[in-house]
Amino acid sequence: MNWMAEAQKRQTELLTELQQLIQIPSVLDESQSSNSQPFGPEPLRALEWILSKGQEAGMTTKNIDQMAGHIEMGEGEELLGILGHVDVVPAGSGWTHPPFEGYIENDCLFGRGAIDDKGPTMAAWMAMKMVKDAGIPLNKRVRLIIGTDEESGFRCVKRYFEREEMPHIGFAPDADFPIINAEKGIATLRFSTIKLERQEQLQTFQAGSRTNMVPDVAIAILHMENDSIKTEFDKFILQHELEGSIEILQSDVHLRIEGKSAHAMEPNDGINAGVYLAKFLVDIVTTSGSKTFVDFVASSFYNDTRGHVLRLQFNDEMSGDTTLNAGILSFDPAYGGTVDVSLRYSVSYSFEEKLTACQSYCNEQGVSVDVVSNSTPHYVEESDELIQSLSRVYERQTGEKATLLAIGGGTYARVLQKGVAFGMLFPGEKDVAHQVDEFVNIPNLIKAVAIYADAICELASNQS
User: Fold this and answer.
1) Is the pLDDT of residue 463 over 80?
2) Residue 464's pLDDT is what?
3) Does domain 3-183+378-460 match CATH 3.40.630.10?
4) What's the pTM value of the predicted model, to 2 decimals?
5) Residue 116 a catalytic site member
6) CATH T-level topology, domain 186-375
7) Strand 68-74 and strand 424-425: pairing?
8) Measured between alpha carbons, how far is 234 from 219 in angstroms, rounded to an integer?
9) DSSP-derived secondary structure for 153-188
10) Is residue 87 annotated as part of the catalytic site, yes or no?
11) Which is catalytic among the residues 6, 87, 266, 431?
12) Which of 172, 180, 347, 362 is deepest in the core (most CB within 10 A)?
């Protein structure tokens, strides 16, 4: 079967459906959470939309507690799982095209979720339809499992697998091609500072809303008089090539710095506005609580996303550097400061040993550290038949060697007993997930459809 030719015939249908899905702003909304819509109305609407597509195609569908669902075809005792998600991170500001429209220009479709993960999920869905329409007999059931809380903690698939069977094998189209067989551990660490005085200079400090995104905006309000602060701030902004503003209202100083958002798995792809604002304030504030907070942030994270200062650094050959993203930074005079950090740690990382060293250092700085969550690394051996099968598919469809990769991102592959991340960014493609003007390359989207159709046949039938 020439899957590339079949995928090209479906391009208009695929793009139209992807646009419809992107037009659902499926961002987590805890303020509207309820039993009937656990993550807010829009993630549920996106889930119901894609399940309706499965029903229209004559496949079996199921909604699990409004959190996750699946579309299934085929027969057999064994189950092949394809895991995607339809929730997205907040759009942020500064988009050239509306983030929830699906604008097409120069072979690119723009929108929040275009590459993470609505585009890849729709590619897998289209591949399922192509295999079904081709009448290829399957010896396994093939199930597209759709989550709605991947960006905020995987609560969706946790509930799903409390109710539903675990696939025997599977893949997640939510990362890079060729094949990702190693995913770093992901922990959220909360660093807290206190040491408050009755009259703190720093009245508020806020940057970021998700640990898995580099904060692109940071704001602070100072209660102090400083005749030179505007000159110093303008100089700092110019020196570091940033955008920012300062407004002085009587004895209050309002500060804002703009950085650049990026995925937490590589903080160096972004510009952390919160860290830069703390760096500026190091030489400005003097009251103990304010000073402790900004000193800690600046010394721990300025020009250090690898955790050297915090004694958390590590590197291994399987998965590369351990990384740290200071994703949510806040200070309130009534409570002190907190920094929520996404720690992406290497496969062979000694987590407890490293955490103990970090805690010892933080204690010396008057800072406490707590583990909010921890998802251990995921690794599948190169010799495994799943890896070998997907390698054959990738090489057959692209003519290129299927090398194995490791990532700092976390995909649904890590919840599978045997699963890997498989696409859909191709080698050399820029990763724009979680960034302004996120897009998917349309020719590569079509190529991914062909690869996924071939993969379904390779793994769940006797044909390819």
Assistant:
1) no
2) 62
3) yes
4) 0.81
5) no
6) Alpha-Beta Plaits (3.30.70)
7) unpaired
8) 15
9) TSHHHHHHHHHSPPPSEEEE-SEESSEEEEE-EEEE
10) yes
11) 87
12) 172
